[in-house]
User: Fold this.
Amino acid sequence: MQKGELVANGKAKSIYKTDDPKKLIMHFRNDTSAFDGEKIEQLDRKGMVNNKFNAFIMQRLEEGGVPTHYESTLSDDEAIVKNLDMLPIECVVRNISTGSLCKRLGVAEGLDLDPPLFEFFLKNDALHDPMINDFHIISFKWGTQKEIETMKELTFKVNGILKKLFLDAGILLVDYKLEFGRYDGKLVLGDEFSPDGCRLWDVKTREKLDKDRFRQGLGGVVEAYEAVAQRLGIAI
Ligand code: CDP
Assistant:
């Protein structure tokens, strides 16, 4: 497959055209960012680890009935994905309270959320990804009512699959963010699923094994990602 021009340069990934207009190349870089791009560092091996992590998770999700944009792995830090028309929306599910939820609502950290919470955010760094609801999505035509229902259904389906997958490896899936896009008239999971976009805690010690290590300057960021990968049986 021919690697074409750069079409998008995100904070941690770059997207390239290919000779097939329906396919793109997603390059996972070592760049690691937090606080809407205010803190950026290069972390050795992270692009490769996240590419392999993401490929593994996307395949488990497909097997579980969640349509994803993942097609195949191209190299250590590149994947071939479907060319989606992305919705400017982030879908967050929370199983345990932490992060922005606690700051926003003044609730304690570490509470079990039963049932899990679902939140929509607008993807806009300059506005710090403000929280939105179904009505904003409809009024501003960021998505349809049917797409809202599908995003909720698929995001919870992901929770069912991944909560068990991580728990079987002794890890709690605390929360995570998903993004969806349109492909052939259907909503499909896009972006990535890696420790950059979710929170993972060791079930016994509650040690953080995700990007909070970077946000909070705890060190051992990529080492923690690799430890999770190893516990899931992902060959890095
Ligand atoms: O990370 P922060 O405390 O600012 O936000 P959050 O709303 O508590 O994040 C919930 C989950 O979504 C965490 O797993 C974040 O890593 C993830 N997230 C993300 O990947 N990208 C964003 N722009 C916002 C949240």
The first strand starts at residue 3 and ends at 9. The mean pLDDT is 98.
